[in-house]
Fold this sequence. Notes:
The complex is a heterodimer of chains A (101) and B (138).
Chain A: H1 6-17, H2 21-40, E1 45-47, E2 51-58, E3 61-64, E4 71-74, E5 77-84, H3 86-93
Antiparallel strand pairs in A: 1-2, 2-5, 3-4
Chain B: H1 3-13, H2 19-38, E1 43-45, E2 49-56, E3 59-62, E4 69-72, E5 75-82, H3 84-101, H4 110-123
Antiparallel strand pairs in B: 1-2, 2-5, 3-4
Helix pairs in contact in B: 1-2
Amino acid sequence: MGALTKAQMADRLFDELGLNKREAKEIVELFFDEVRGSLENNEQVKLSGFGNFDLREKGERPGRNPKTGEEIPITARRVVTFRPGQKLKARVEAYAGPESE
Amino acid sequence: MTKSELIEIIAARQTQLSVKDVELAVKTLIEQMSETLASGERIEIRGFGSFSLHYRAPRIGRNPKTGESVGLAGKYVPHFKPGKELRDRVNKGLERDSLQTDADGSPDSSGSDSAAGVVKSAAEADGTGQPSQTNLFE
């Protein structure tokens, strides 16, 4: 039971919607490419039924090199956060956890 | 960007499929991603990031109206960890924006920048690399 990957997502478009393999692969690539492009341009992405990808700006803060212990500031940066929507949260909450033996 | 805008853009970027077909495809992808998480499995997209479930332990909650205590069961919540490429590209966006506002042209600080980059990549493993099941089945 491996993780879901782009290859499996393309397979599903082939099996379920009858796209040809090349179209299916292209749509999956474009999907993630466009979401990433929007975030790169500092634009939030809202996928209703799934969740929102938001952007947050974090100021510089003190950090440390974990190997040497040396103090180095962590520069200001922009980060992506994902806020799952109500529908996804409800579906995931219904998951009972790994089957106990 | 909303789902319908995403659908329009994808439809415009390819030639074979109609907007209707692309709409169905995008909805199918989102449904498959939701199903995957709902069944407790991870999603790993190279260059983008990974989705997994995080466990929230049971706790005692309180009804805000009555002040009454209620036991809340443990549950799973979806979690997204951006992959290295997404993190870097989003952060480059910030650098680009600050260059535009920085009309005075303050001295380049790329030296300290790359040092912090080392700290960060050492501190965080890339979520899209090797699958790690740490969040889920332990």
